[in-house]
Design goal:
Elements (H helix, E strand, L loop, with lengths): L1 E2 L20 E5 L7 E5 L2 E2 L15 H20 L4 H25 L17 H15 L12 H22 L8 H7 L9 H7 L4 H12 L2 H4 L4 H15 L9 H17 L8 H13 L9 H7 L2 H5 L5 H14 L12 H16 L6 H13 L8 H13 L7 H24 L15 H33 L1 H4 L51 H42 L1
Helix pairs in contact: 1-2, 2-4, 7-9, 7-10, 7-11, 10-11, 10-17, 11-15, 14-15, 15-17, 16-17, 16-19, 17-19, 19-21
GO molecular function, one term: metal ion binding
Keywords: cGMP, Hydrolase, Metal-binding
Pfam families: PDEase_I (PF00233), PDEase_I_N (PF08499)
Length: about 575
Amino acid sequence: MKFLFYFVANPPDDDDATPSKDDDTQTAGSPGSGAAVLVRKTRSPTNGEGEEELPPVDTLEACDKAAERLRELSNHLNHGEIPMDVLQQTVTYAVSVLEAIYLDETKRLLDEDDELSEVQPDAVPPEVREWLASTFTRQMSTTRRRSEDKLRFRSVAHAIRAGIMVDRIYRRLSSSSNLQMPAQIAQLLKNSEDWSFDVFALNSVASGQCLRYMSHYLLNRFGLIQKFKMSTASLESFLVQIENGYERYRNPYHNNMHAADVTQTVAYLLCQAGLANWLTDIEIFATLFAAIIHDYEHTGTTNSFHVMSGSETALLYNDRAVLENYHVSQSFRLLRDDENSILSNLSKEEYREFRSLVIEMVLATDMSSHFQQIKTMKTLLCHSDFSSMDKAKVLSLMLHCCDISHPAKDWNLHFRWTQRLMEEFFRQGDKEKELRLPFSPLCDRNSTLVAESQIGFIDFIVSPSLEVCGDMLDRILRHVEGHKDGVIAEDSTVPTSRSLQTSSPANSPSHSRASPRLFNSPGQSPRHLPSGGSVPRPWLKCLDNNKKMWQELSDKDAELREQITEASKKRFRDYSNGLDK
């Protein structure tokens, strides 16, 4: 015997309905309230083999049964896990019932105008409308006469929402099979929505595996692991090998912590700046992936050093974006191994788009392209037509800005990054000295003025870059806010073309990956839109404070150098006077 949970018809929003102690109880609201609540405890009939008999989907009993089973499912989700086969059977049956109900509604309204005509032309492109009609008509044709093939948009919309609900539940359940994080790491990662996230603290508690945990957390947070059906084992293998590659040369700066920091900063802009609302899932996946691998197996030396020393890597890539080409090439080479095949479920079209975006974004982290990127984006921002905003260029500039963003973080973080970067530069200077090459800028440990160099870096590179990036994100936010009723499909009456591309997993074409992202982790949704019509710019305060701190250190260094100079002059005068005597 199987007992079902309580079934509440037209339940209140807060799930606080309390069932009666009696086995069968009916209560009705006042006539003016428009609400009726039926609370009952039922025992399901079986077919003699222990399996529950379900009424035909086109009957009122089926609607009753579907509602009961969905409430049972809801209780399981709130209080624990549920077997995947039970989930699949319940949702499949409920969706079939909903389809039957709306087919019946369609028959009743055959003489009315097609409800698709009520939708604004730009809300549902003709090709999407045609795809929806052809897809759902084939599935439903067995229950209708040929003369009744006129499909109503409302039934399509509700079926789509049912698909979104199934996707959300599936992601929520399947995420439990992903990487299990220690409590201390999980607690730290909850702060990943902070602009000045402390990746040093994360690396300490993660036993030197901060990139692995950060990457897994963010890919899961944006629903990408489930969306693209990544094998947990393949993802784990890939992330472990990527992290090992970052540690290959034991660099003070270009290591796994830098990669984790850049990846977290990219995720911050995707989420807090509302950028995720403008992008498809494959674009978000490519952006996070590019951040994760953008300095893979970095040698701890600059492109200039590779060119000047005539390294094999420089010869391979013809002296152009030497390291950046190497990073992306080696990362995709890893993906060719079966044990790292996290892209195996992408269609050919998705893979081409993904690879193209990743290559362009990683190559854009070459500092030699900095001023051209800034100039290009300023030109795009001057155009009144938003369609001129090229996504690849937007994402490339964003990754580049995140790559050089440490001067725009809290002082305690920025100072530690600066110490590490200068030590890496000085180690290169030591190699240049051994090879009898001229010192590269900032690489001579005996003469480099660190404070002054950072002030210049802030004034001429970081601050202008983030200003343009902020203007770019504001422009995108204004565009998204103007279309937010269409972007957030499950909250809108009429889904847009992007939201309508979500269907059941079995029938999803490749372009259905453009569906709204679902959120799997505590914290603010990646689909959150900033309030006030502008993107938050926490970097402004940090830049101002850090520049002041460097100026104070610069003044002290100048005073110290003056004292040393005076002491040297005094020693020289004393020595000269001794010779005269």
